[in-house]
UniProtKB/TrEMBL annotation:
It catalyses: L-glutamine + H2O = L-glutamate + NH4(+); hydrogencarbonate + L-glutamine + 2 ATP + H2O = carbamoyl phosphate + L-glutamate + 2 ADP + phosphate + 2 H(+). Small subunit of the glutamine-dependent carbamoyl phosphate synthetase (CPSase). CPSase catalyzes the formation of carbamoyl phosphate from the ammonia moiety of glutamine, carbonate, and phosphate donated by ATP, constituting the first step of 2 biosynthetic pathways, one leading to arginine and/or urea and the other to pyrimidine nucleotides. The small subunit (glutamine amidotransferase) binds and cleaves glutamine to supply the large subunit with the substrate ammonia. One of its GO terms (biological process) is L-arginine biosynthetic process. Its EC number is 6.3.5.5. The gene is carA. Pathway: Pyrimidine metabolism; UMP biosynthesis via de novo pathway; (S)-dihydroorotate from bicarbonate: step 1/3; Amino-acid biosynthesis; L-arginine biosynthesis; carbamoyl phosphate from bicarbonate: step 1/1. The active site is at residues 249, 333, 335. It comes from the Bacteria. This is Carbamoyl phosphate synthase small chain. Residues 3-142 form the Carbamoyl-phosphate synthase small subunit N-terminal domain. One of its GO terms (molecular function) is carbamoyl-phosphate synthase (glutamine-hydrolyzing) activity.
Length: 362
């Protein structure tokens, strides 16, 4: 700690700060997250793979880090995956001392144990304004040796974070869903298991057509959705059938692409716990947790689909739904972790549809 390190942007701006976590250099896409809490969950969210996360909350680390090895029902009890996924962390004030009932270690010690660099003592407001004006940009944390810039959106990150074989949770439950793991957050699995669903978690490019299941779920995940060609092709086949389909974040983008819509990169993305969305056709607004850089272009949705939710900050599409079939997807995170749970009811609506399908086909 306390050694000098630099945050360097591709446009040449260099900002000096102090090191915490691993004293090492790392490159990625610099993105900002305005959530006030939830750094343990965000750092382990596989959708952040390849990104350097700037947290705008002024103090980070003060509630420590829980046991990242503790397991409940075969998944990490407190984390969203089995490792830190970001490439680097940028904060204003780093609190080395912590106090929280489930914390067992300092944030800096945890980052160091996984060789992830952090930089503190920098003006995160200035950085955020810069990213808002210029858009997300490549950058690097430079410690002792320089590294090349790295654009995660050119890599197949989904292949890196997806499971490598089929994993079943809550085996034997009446309702079975196939979950395409593009980098799934653990709380999505918890949300299904807590509702007594068997989850058949399959790799991102797995041909699940021969499995026995009642509904299909497509997870969140990192990078550019257009790179997930095998997943898009599998979903295309599923769209021809009658089984209910639900997708979250990358899952929303992949179902949209499979249906024939297109996606584009947002200027600086949505990463926070207070994104307002409107349920289209109503005056209902929900506050949602979000973490994405791409979005679906709903100005020309394929026939049979309509916009499900709209973002009230910038008007972008926050999900699509089919007009007659039980297919709906959302760009935000109903499973939260961290963030508000206002939209967790969508899991119940999906499972209701899956039950209806199962009963009709019994
Ligand atoms: N959280 C996610 O699933 C992110 C989806 C996609 N990688 C994006 O940035 O838009």
């Amino acid at each position: 700690m306390d050694k000098t390190v630099k945050l360097v942007f591709q446009d040449g701006l260099e900002i000096e700060g102090k090191s915490f976590g691993a004293y090492t250099s790392a490159a990625g896409e610099v993105v900002f997250n305005t959530a006030l809490v939830g750094y343990n969950e965000s750092l382990t969210d596989p959708s952040y793979k390849g990104q350097i996360m700037v947290m705008t909350a002024p103090m980070i680390g003060n509630y420590g880090v829980p046991d990242d090895k503790a397991m409940i029902n075969e998944i990490e009890a407190w984390m969203e995956s089995n490792q830190i996924q970001v490439t680097g962390l940028v904060v204003s004030y780093y609190a080395d001392d912590y106090s929280h009932w489930n914390a067992i270690q300092k944030l800096g010690v945890w980052l160091e144990s996984q060789n992830i660099p952090g930089i503190y003592g920098v003006d995160t407001r200035m950085i955020t304004k810069k990213l808002r004006e210029q858009g997300s940009t490549l950058g690097k944390i430079v410690a002792d040796t320089d590294v090349a810039y790295y654009d995660p959106n050119e890599d197949n990150l989904v292949d890196q974070v997806s499971c490598k074989e089929v994993i079943r949770y809550n085996e034997g439950a009446d309702i079975k869903i196939v979950l395409i793991d593009c980098g799934v957050k653990n709380n999505i699995i918890r949300c299904f298991v807590n509702r007594d669903v068997e989850v058949i978690r399959v790799p991102w490019d797995y041909d699940y057509s021969t499995l026995e299941y009642d509904g299909l779920f497509i997870s969140n995940g990192p990078g550019d959705p257009a790179l997930c060609v095998p997943t898009i092709n599998n979903i295309k086949e599923s769209l021809k059938g009658d089984k209910p389909i639900f997708g979250i974040c990358l899952g929303n983008q992949l179902v949209s692409l499979a249906a024939g819509a297109s996606t584009f990169k947002l200027k600086y993305g949505h990463r926070s716990h207070n994104q307002p969305v409107q349920l289209v056709g109503t005056k209902r607004c929900f506050i949602t947790s979000q973490n994405h850089g791409f979005a679906v272009d709903d100005s020309k949705l394929p026939e049979g689909f309509k916009t499900f939710f709209t973002n009230l900050n910038d008007g972008t599409c926050e999900g699509i739904r089919h007009e007659s079939k039980p297919i709906f997807t959302v760009q935000f995170h109903p499973e939260a972790m961290g963030g508000p749970v206002d939209t967790e009811y969508l899991f119940d609506e999906f499972i209701e549809e899956v039950k209806k399908y199962k009963n009709a086909n019994a």
